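thread: overnight batch results

M.L. [08:02]
morning all. the overnight job finished for the chain we discussed friday. pasting input first so we're all looking at the same thing
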Amino acid sequence: MPSNILYHKILPMGEFRTFDSKPDLEVARTTQIHSKNLAVYKGQKLDKEEADGIFFKRAALKTKKTAVAVTTADCMPILFIGDESGVFLHAGWKGLSQGILKNPLIKDASPKYCLIGPSISLEAFEVQKDFYEHFPEKEFFHKIKGKTHFDLKAKARRDILDEFPEIQLEIAPECTLRQREYHSYRRDKTKERNWNIFSL
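M.L. [08:03]
and the structure it wrote out:
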């Protein structure tokens, strides 16, 4: 897998990178539980904190020479950047259905930019009928070859633009299931994870 995927089209500062295993960097990372909870990074260890996102101040990352990380294996890494603060999320369908993108800490970051990183695509995300119970908006469901699929990235995009209509939004085109250089739980039930890193 590429160990240094960079998105610099409109990323206003720092670097977003994806690694196939934990990189040799000092990182702040929570214990992810598919929730809508966020942790606040103030220079402390976050490993034992159960949350699926990290609110951070740029100054804290610089002072501690630390990157923020979320791990994924089909879910979306979503990065919000404001002038002084940011939020880095691990967002799968459970987080989306619980409203992780409406967490007030994201507004506290006053984001001007958002990146949805490599994650499962509409074409690869087949769901069953009971999935409709989690999402009342039917426009994100599509029939492909007679089977029902759900567009996670489109749902996230809509939620983000509803909250922040003026934000610069970038969506990585990679599909973690279809592109074998990425780890994908849906493809092979792997225990390995993609390490998504934001650093200054």
